[in-house]
């Protein structure tokens, strides 16, 4: 026995001993223990339910390492397949569809596409609604797929139509509220061309001349009141094999002797009064125009 063990043994023998020693239990007993077990069991059940719900959500939403469901995260961006609904604004740089599928944007009310500058100000807006399609911008252009040819352009100052031919198929034609400037107006083959102003006048002006021609048909000009042909500096030239003036008033003649019976006239002359009036007069007879300066065109 070593010295240390001997000292410890003699010290224990010298301690006073109690006759009835009391022992105090250490731990949780009674209703506290049952509550603790209940909470541990409830926590275990909750963890199992959460784990089961997480696995179910992962399976239903089709979570993978590439994305979620129809949403795939690629190097070029996000790829979305199928029908998708956006409840809040969508901010993207570009939207592309697959090469073999169209891109469809659908809304219960309208579809609005806004363009803003770096200050957040609205610079352009395209709204597709149930009643109309509205575009608000400084300049609206429509270009062809091949070559980028300008087909239609509109701004505050003018509207440009760059197509090779403008075709109006409506039964009422085209209605213009103001002047129209064009180098050529042509109807469809085998169709008539009609320029009409129902309640006002129709004016055609050109500084170097106006030419109206009918290569394979008639040219008719009708009016209700008066038809004026006026040339301020040149002349009016009528060139045709036959020139006919219908519905001219027929003049009367007086014989030199009232008692003599004049033969029936079968030849008439077209005469012009100084006032410019044309009328028919029997050849060789006195004119009803009270002037001596009548001019006979032919007899």
Unreliable segments of 5+ consecutive residues = 290-299
- Report the strand count: 12
* Ends distance: 177 Å
How would a crystallographer describe the biggest sheet?
Answer: 3 strands, antiparallel
The outline comes out as rod-shaped
Q: What percentage of amino acids are in beta strands? A: 15-25%
- In the sheet with the most strands, the strands line up as 1-2-3
Radius of gyration: 53 Å
SSE string, helices as H and strands as E = HHEEEEEEEEEEEE
Q: Helix- and strand-based class?
A: alpha+beta
Describe the structure.
By secondary structure, the chain is of the alpha+beta class. The protein is built from 2 helices and 12 strands. Residues 290-299 have low confidence and may be disordered.
Structure summary:
The protein has 299 residues and is an alpha+beta fold. 14% of the residues lie in helices and 16% in strands. The chain is built from 2 helices and 12 strands.
Which secondary structure elements does this structure contain, and how are they paired or packed?
Elements lengths: L2 H12 L16 H30 L6 E2 L2 E3 L4 E3 L30 E6 L5 E7 L4 E4 L3 E4 L6 E5 L4 E3 L106 E5 L5 E5 L12 E2 L3
Antiparallel strand pairs: 1-2, 2-3, 4-5, 5-6, 7-8, 8-9, 10-11, 10-12
């Amino acid at each position: 026995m070593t010295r240390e063990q001997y000292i410890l043994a003699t010290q224990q023998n010298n301690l006073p001993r109690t006759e009835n020693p009391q022992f105090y239990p250490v731990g949780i007993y009674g209703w506290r223990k049952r509550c603790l077990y209940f909470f541990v069991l409830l926590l275990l059940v909750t963890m199992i339910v959460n784990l089961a719900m997480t696995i179910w959500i992962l399976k239903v939403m089709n979570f993978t390492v590439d994305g979620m469901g129809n949403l795939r995260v690629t190097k070029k961006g996000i790829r979305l397949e199928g029908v998708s609904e956006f409840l809040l604004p969508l901010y993207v740089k570009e939207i592309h569809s697959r090469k073999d599928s169209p891109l469809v944007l659908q809304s219960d009310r309208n579809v609005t596409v806004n363009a803003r500058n770096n200050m957040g100000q609205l610079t352009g807006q395209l709204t597709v609604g149930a009643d109309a399609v509205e575009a608000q911008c400084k300049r609206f252009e429509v270009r062809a797929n091949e070559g980028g040819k300008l087909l239609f352009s509109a701004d505050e100052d003018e509207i440009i139509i760059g197509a090779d031919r403008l075709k109006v198929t409506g039964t009422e034609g085209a209605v213009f509220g103001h002047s129209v400037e064009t180098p050529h107006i042509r109807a469809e083959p085998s169709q008539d061309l009609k320029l009409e102003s129902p309640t006002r006048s129709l004016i055609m002006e050109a500084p170097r001349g106006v030419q109206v021609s009918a290569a394979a048909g008639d040219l008719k000009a009708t009016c209700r009141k008066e038809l004026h042909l006026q040339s301020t500096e040149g002349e009016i030239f009528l060139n045709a094999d036959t020139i006919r003036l219908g519905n001219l008033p027929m003049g009367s003649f007086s014989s030199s002797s009232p008692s003599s019976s004049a033969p029936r006239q079968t030849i008439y002359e077209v005469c012009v009064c100084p006032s410019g009036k044309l009328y028919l007069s029997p050849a060789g007879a006195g004119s009803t125009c009270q002037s001596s300066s009548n001019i006979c065109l032919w007899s």
